Amino acid sequence: MSTIKDFTDAEQWAVNTTLKERWPDQDLDIQLADVEIKMFPHERELTTCPAIFWQVGETSFIIIKIGERLYRSQFYYRGYQQYGTGKSEFDDIADCVTTLLQVHADKEVELRQEKE
User: How many helices (H) and strands (E) does the chain have?
Assistant: First the structure.
């Protein structure tokens, strides 16, 4: 059992508000979940952590709470197309979600340019 506390109402509000600003015309299904992750790459042990998950189109997003005011995030298109933010962890949920959405927007531009 994990000792990491669930997302607070304030943390959820920060994520929801940012997502509504990014996609104002979409009613996103934001889900709370638990995930098992390695806290450090060299460890074998998995730690259960709370997560916030949502999908937009073919993209899935996840923010994982790894401690008090500590977060990791990534988005993916398929299991083998996973993208992070380039930052291993965040200490501010608003910075985490904003950076995740910016990296995603940049990747979308890159993918459109590749198709041209």
Answer: 2, 5
Q: Is residue 1 part of a domain?
A: no
Global pTM exceeds 0.90? yes
Q: Which helix H or strand E contains 31, and what residues bound it? A: strand 31-37
Residues 28-61: tens digit of each pLDDT: 999 999 999 999 888 899 999 999 999 999 999 9
Q: Does 24 fall in a domain?
A: yes
Running DSSP on this structure, what letter comes out for residue 90? B
Output DSSP code: residue 65.
E
Establish if 39 belongs to a structural domain.
yes
What is the Cα–Cα distance from 87 to 96, expressed in whole angstroms? 9
Quick check: is 4 in a domain? no
Domain that holds residue 26: 9-115
